[in-house]
Design brief:
heterodimer, A: 115 residues, mainly beta, Immunoglobulin-like, six-stranded mixed sheet, five-stranded antiparallel sheet, globular, B: 114 residues, seven-stranded mixed sheet, four-stranded antiparallel sheet
């Protein structure tokens, strides 16, 4: 059973508009969340993260929102640009003291930004 | 600055063959990870290492073995390849303990088992 889910496999948006990507999680032990971006034939690259002590984190055009009670987070991209076309993965890390800083990933959302 | 380098980039194997995927990082990271990516499944952790000489199982370890003889290298082995192991494999590394330091990924190895 997937502990991190991205229910929208794909998203198409017009250049200049807002892209909203959603992610849900089930494990209450998750307390740190990340978004990665992936282009074809490349590895994922880190985009933005948020700790559970916050409900919002912003970095330029990218903002991540966290709703702990709903176990939901979202990534907003404003304004969307053609170079943002990629697959976006949501990932979560548990609060456990065990070593490893392991991540659990969602299935990804493919974003296409149309010029 | 190479970051995380994976070799080979592509490989085709026959069922039952063995092979080793190599991951090398030049960032002096303590932690290293092997993931597999399958359509709709995201990235799933196979094995990981928190330091030289140590390894641990992840979410989907069956059919794989790993070794971390040197801090900068993390090897993933398939002793007897099966078609279910057809996937794209990613290696990653990260600084220890500090979760604000994200995992850095290589560009992947695309592996097909016939």
């Amino acid at each position: 059973d997937q502990q991190v889910k991205q229910n929208s496999p794909s998203l198409s948006v017009q250049e200049g508009r807002i892209s909203i990507l959603n992610c849900d999680y089930t494990n209450s032990m998750f307390d740190y969340f990340l978004w990665y971006k992936k282009y074809p034939a490349e590895g994922p690259t880190f985009l933005i993260s948020i700790s559970s002590i916050k409900d919002k984190n912003e970095d330029g055009r990218f903002t991540v929102f966290l709703n702990k009670s709903a176990k939901h987070l979202s990534l907003h991209i404003v304004p969307s640009q053609p170079g943002d076309s990629a697959v976006y993965f949501c990932a979560a890390s548990p609060t456990t003291k065990a070593a490893g800083n392991k991540l659990t990933f969602g299935g990804g959302t493919r974003v296409l930004v149309k010029p | 600055n190479a970051g995380v380098t994976q070799t080979p980039k592509f490989r085709v194997l026959k069922t039952g063959q063995s092979m080793t995927l190599l991951c090398a990082q030049d960032m002096n990271h303590e932690y290293m990870y092997w993931y597999r990516q399958d359509p709709g499944m995201g990235l799933r952790l196979i094995h990981y290492s928190v330091g030289e000489g140590t390894t641990a199982k992840g979410e989907v370890p069956d059919g794989y073995n790993v070794s971390r003889l040197k801090k900068q290298n993390f090897l993933l082995g398939l002793e007897s390849a099966a078609p279910s192991q057809t996937s794209v494999y990613f290696c990653a590394s990260s600084n220890h303990r500090d979760r604000s330091q994200p995992q850095h990924f290589g560009d992947g190895t695309r592996l097909s088992i016939l």
